[in-house]
Amino acid sequence: MKYDYYPGCTLKTKAKELDRCLRASAEALGIQLEELPEWQCCGGVYTTARDEIATKLSAVRALSAARDSTGTLVTVCAGCHNVLKRVNDDVKNDDYFNQRVNNYLLPEKPYLGETRVVHFLELLRDEVGFDEIKKRVVNPIGKKIAPYYGCLLLRPSSVMAFDDPENPTVLEKFVECIGGTPVVSPMRNECCGAYTTVSDPSAAAEYSGKIVDSCVKNGANLIITACPLCQYNLVKRDGRLPVVYFTELLAEALGVKE
Amino acid sequence: MNDIKKTTEQLAFMSGAVTSRCMGCGKCTASCPAFDRMEYHPHQFVYMVETGRIDKLLASKSAFSCLTCFACVERCPRMVEPARLIEAVRLAVERQQGGNRLLPDDVPCVIDDDMPQQAVVAALRKFTK
Amino acid sequence: MQKIGVFVCWCGSNIAATVDVRKLVEAAKHEPGVVYAADYQYMCSASGQQLIKDAVANYGLTGVVVCSCSPRMHEATFRKAAQSAGLNPYMLEIANIREHCSWIHKDVESATEKAVILMRAAVAKVNLNVSLTAGKSAVVKRALVIGGGIAGIQSALDIAEAGYNVDIVEKKPTIGGKMAQLDKTFPTLDCAACILTPKMVEAASDERIRIYSYSEVESVSGFVGNFTVKIRKKSRFVEEDLCTGCGLCAEKCPSRKTGNEFNLGMDKRGAVYIPFAQAVPKLAVIDPAACLHFKTGKCGLCAKNCQAKAINFDKKDEIVEEKYGAIVVATGFNPIDPSPFGELGYSRYPDVITSLELERIMNAAGPTGGVLLRPSDKAHPKKIVFVQCVGSRGLRGCDKPYCSKICCMYTAKHAMLIREKYPDTEVSVFYIDVRTPGKNFDEFYRRAVEQYGVHYIKGQVGKVAENAGKLVVHGSDLIMNEQVEIEADLVVLAVAIEPDESARKLATMLTASMDTNDFFTEAHPKLRPVESPTAGVFLSGVCQGPKDIPETVSQASAAAAKVVGLLSKDQLTCNPCVAHSDELLCNGCSACEKVCPYGAITYQDKEVNDHGKREVRRLAFVNEAVCQGCGACTVACPSGAMDLKGFTNRQIMAEVDAICR
Amino acid sequence: MQVEKFTPKIVAFCCNWCSYAGADLAGTGRMQYPENVKIIRVPCSCRVNPSFILRAFQRGADGVIICGCHPGDCHYTSGNYFARRRMTLLFGMLDFLGIERARTRVEWVSAAEGARFASVMNDFVQKVAALGPNRRLGDLRCRDSKEVEK
Fold first, then answer.
1. Of B21, C247, C402, D44, whose CB is crowded by the most CB atoms within 10 A?
2. How far is A10 from chain B (nearest CA, A)?
3. Do B15 and A49 touch (CB under 8 A)?
4. Domain extent for C267
């Protein structure tokens, strides 16, 4: 199993653990991830305006490079994943966008959305299989773990097609397979405050507070996430519970963390 | 008057949202996590654009409280996509002279050591043109 | 040469505003065969029709063209008028200049130009029309009602009362349908069972009514007055004439794992069961998917205990064939499954239920014996939230685009009943609009608010979530411009209703048309609301569109009146536009016979005189009472012998020529 | 000199039970489609003899469309299947005659699909208009001289 891998800028700086543990786990599971050469920032956030072309170009570059390589682009940062999947969908389904992007980038072969964008969790669920992972767990994580999805992984479900947007199960199944007990919080698909943390920390504190609150109320002693921004908000703007990346627990369970 | 019509058309194009489909159920507003920080709420965005009363929207800070979390888009039974409309309003404001809400020079004052890059990039993308 | 009169209708301003009717009249005067042309405001009115009659008399017209609305609307009207003037009705044709011209175009000049061409085509056709005489066919004096809910029962009772035999086919083991599951009915709050069960018994005891319960329509052939229907009587594995309905078998059955359909799975039933105490017919039925005997070959406790010796594990499905003159469709509805609306948590939280489930909980024969207890812990709920329009009026794949019509009223009923029986409860209703058009309906809803203190909140629910064991409803209050959060003990979803899934298959069998939501289409939405466009097929109840019980019953009786009108005739006038074979051209090749969907074509050896040469030839012969006039044979015929009266090759070619001129 | 816009002549054969009713519904709903579509009512799509279509092209029609009930929904149970098979054969022959494939079409429109009827007609007229006049089988006498010169 060989795939192109797009880490994204946060994974190179503030979220190094997310990246390092992902690579270690992938290796242990026999997944070959090739980092895309010379990738650029995906744009950080997807803008929904149809006439915003320039902010989506770098994502198209990454997608088009992956097409010419393995055809599948694996991401793990929820932000990058959201941007890449949605831009890919635009290229595929919005002629207005497609024409302008290709006119601008002038690639040798026009990019038409051929690349498959896959989140590492989707890879674990659909291609490796949680049963298979369970067999390789040497270090079960016996904790009560609250999965936190946030908004970027799930919505809009018509494009992301990641999981049921209102009743997702992939992280719960993941927690089970590494030996933990999933704690379902009703706030797991609500927004943590996202980028407003820069302009209005009190807003992010309020939203994150509600999320952590419900995790505490439901008896969790750990929160897992796939998003560096969520991790930051939940820890920095609240901090009552430890928040780790799911790849950290995976690496720990597989015994490859150190 | 003409300006308002033109801007309304522009908002419709940018967002792709069909405001006339709205039946005013308020499901978007019920789903909005940023409700308390908004002067105008998602269903009002839709109604005000539909009825051409956008001057108040453009003058309000409400669009900048939206988290683009897409809960409203996900749940809207009429496929109106309020979040796209709100983003269009925000961009319409930012594209005006002096419309930026976050200047690159301000960034060092608001960040801390742990803040992930994507937060800064995203905030600049959302609040600055 | 024909003498044709052309009559142009203004249809008030419907046509005249877009088509220059004077110009059209002038143009008509120059068409070959036209001897008279006139326009009038409303051709379909009595004086409009008189205009035709007078012109036929004064100008000796042999053909008439009316430029007006669709022939599907008034062709019959005008043909009758022509007939009363002494003209053969089939010498009249319509040029559709309303639906196909004035209503869809805006520019007067080009619309007029198109109207002229449509008129020309009609004139060209009438020039080739010949008088046609309709044949007669006999009427089978028995009706079939498909579906045994309140709609089907009412139609059957009314048909029987008029003196005709009628069969009800019901796919479930008992008749009664959805109404049997209801507790009380709005706006009078009378008990559903008290008004329905007497009707069920009446249907069962009426000697003119035969009930095929646990049966399904397998195939339908034939045509109005003479349908042949195959009915599959599914095996109950119980001899119907022996079973006494004592219920001992159901008591003894050791399998207790199957959800009881009548109570929507909220309690369990045995593998052998009687659907409910008032079931008609009251017969046991074995569910082979749950029965230990069918699964393991052992058990057989029911057979051992049955004193009537009615259990028969080897019983097979039976197919019966019957003939009917008319068919009433009364296939009803089902509430949709709200699971796709994930934000409302129906599939996750046991205390989020549908209104029909609440109806069973409130019913004395229901899973809780009529005591309001919530499913999760059987506790008495104190705070109850109703959510309106779940799946109605939406555009996503899981939504229905229409208003389900009954939800506003039954929710008011539920809220009122709960508040009356349990004054300590707090009841809130999230609504978008409260729609109460009906006699005493709005007064009823107001009573819920004013007298019973039900809290109506204008807004929708964004999410229902369980937080630390409590259901929390997040909604909006649009009048206050606020978000509201209610900790609820029970959440009731007013889910959309949709046509029963059997309707689509049935529509295909009946060649009756359906709309995009799988509701049956009526022949005319206003003037023929209980007839399907397919002759002899009538519509009763929700299969045609959402409606409440009073409306369903009225429609059921209306459909019955139409059926009785049909069955009271000894003979029906057939469609004279049938196929006809030219003896001199036919070479007896059988190509036409092979494509005829009705088996209307047979071959006979007949002596013909072919230009003085007499010989016996094998010739196609069309049975005019059986032919429905589709024209499939006319195209299949290699020698051009077969033609369709009223739509002959020459007539259609003339229309083509006129359009392309 | 102003060049006149080419408006194609379109003949539409509609079955009485579904498509003609669909066209009526388009009218009732005031859904616009071009004036150049002229509808001929036939009892069923299987009544449409391929010779009618050839005749239309010969007499100067630029496009011919046959509309029937959706497969499985034919009022006469199987008529639309016959129509589909016959038209498939005819299209092969029209190909051979050099008449562009896009000038003929078979569409299924139910009695409830007024909007679909209008959109099918709009699309068809647009596609035929893009092809220009039908010259291949058009009887030159049917055209006015100006057009022939062009």
1. D44
2. 5
3. yes
4. 248-305
Give the best residue of A11, A45, A148, A153 to mutate against chain B (max B CB count within 10 A). A45
The continuous run of DSSP H or E covering C268 comes out as: strand C268-269
Cis before A110? omega within 30: no
Write the CATH number of the domain with boundaries A129-254: 3.40.50.1860
C523: tokens are 């022949």
Taking the CA of residue C108 and the nearest CA in chain B, the distance in Å comes to 30
CA distance C116 to C19: 9
Looking at this protein, which amino acid is placed at residue C62? T
CA-to-CA dists, residue C278 to C163, C180, C193, C640, angstroms: 27, 9, 9, 63
Cα-based torsion angle of the residue sequence C208, C212, C216, C218 in order, rounded to the nearest 10 degrees: -60
Structure tokens at C107: 């520019």
Burial D7-37 (b: 16+ CB within 10 A, else e): ebbbbbbbbbbbbbbbbbbbbbeebebbbbb
Neighbours of C515 (CB within 10 A): 18
Alpha carbons C131 and C461: distance in angstroms, whole number: 66
Two structure tokens written together for B37:
């920080």
Are the CB atoms for C20 and C110 separated by under 8 Å?
no
Is CATH 1.20.1050.140 the classification given to domain A2-120? yes
Q: Hey, what long-range contacts does C437-444 have (CB within 8 A, 24 or more apart)?
A: C438/C187, C438/C409, C438/C548, C438/C550, C439/C187, C439/C550, C440/C187, C440/C188, C441/C186, C441/C187, C441/C409, C443/C187, C444/C186, C444/C187, C444/C409, C444/C412, C444/C413, C444/C416
List the single residue in D with minimal CA-CA distance to C108: D35
Q: What's the rounded Cα separation, in Å, for the pair D148 and D150?
A: 5
Question: pLDDT truncated to tens, each residue of chain B (129 aa)?
Answer: 578 888 999 999 999 999 999 999 999 999 999 999 999 999 999 999 999 999 999 999 999 999 999 999 999 999 999 999 999 999 999 988 888 888 888 888 888 888 998 888 888 888 888
* DSSP code per residue over A59-77: HHHHHHHHHHTTSEEEE-S
Residue D26 and residue D33 in contact, taking contact as beta carbons nearer than 8 Å: yes
Tell which CATH classification among 3.30.70, 2.40.128, 3.30.160, 3.40.50 matches the domain D10-149. Answer: 3.40.50
Which CATH superfamily groups domain B2-96? Alpha-helical ferredoxin (1.10.1060.10)
The full set of domain ranges for chain A reads 2-120, 129-254
The span from the first CA to the last CA of chain D, in angstroms, equals 14
Cβ atoms of residues A6 and A62 within 8 Å: yes
Min Cα–Cα distance to chain B from C531, Å: 33
Task: Please state, in angstroms and rounded to a whole number, the distance separating the CA atoms of residues D44 and D79.
Answer: 6
Question: Cβ contact (<8 Å) for B29 and C478?
Answer: yes
State the complex-level ipTM.
0.86
The tokens describing C447, both together, are 């009573």
Is the link from the previous residue into C281 a cis peptide, with omega within 30 of 0? yes
**Which residues have CB under 8 Å from C98's CB, separation 6+?**
C9, C11, C14, C15, C68, C69, C70, D27
Taking contacts as CB-CB distances below 8 angstroms, the residues of chain D near C72 are 16, 20-21, 24
The four Cα atoms D124, D128, D130, D132 give a dihedral, to 10 degrees, of -170
Distance CA C101, CA C118 (A): 9
Q: CATH code at C617?
A: 3.30.70.3270
- Per-residue pLDDT tens over the stretch C171-229: 999 999 999 999 999 999 999 999 999 999 999 999 999 999 999 999 998 889 999 99
DSSP-assigned beta bridge partners for residue C232: C216, C319
Residue C155 and residue C134: Cα distance in Å, rounded?
A: 31
Distance CA A180, CA C478 (A): 43
Residue C269 bridge partners (DSSP): C258
Prediction pTM value: 0.88
Q: Assign C334 to helix, strand or coil.
A: strand
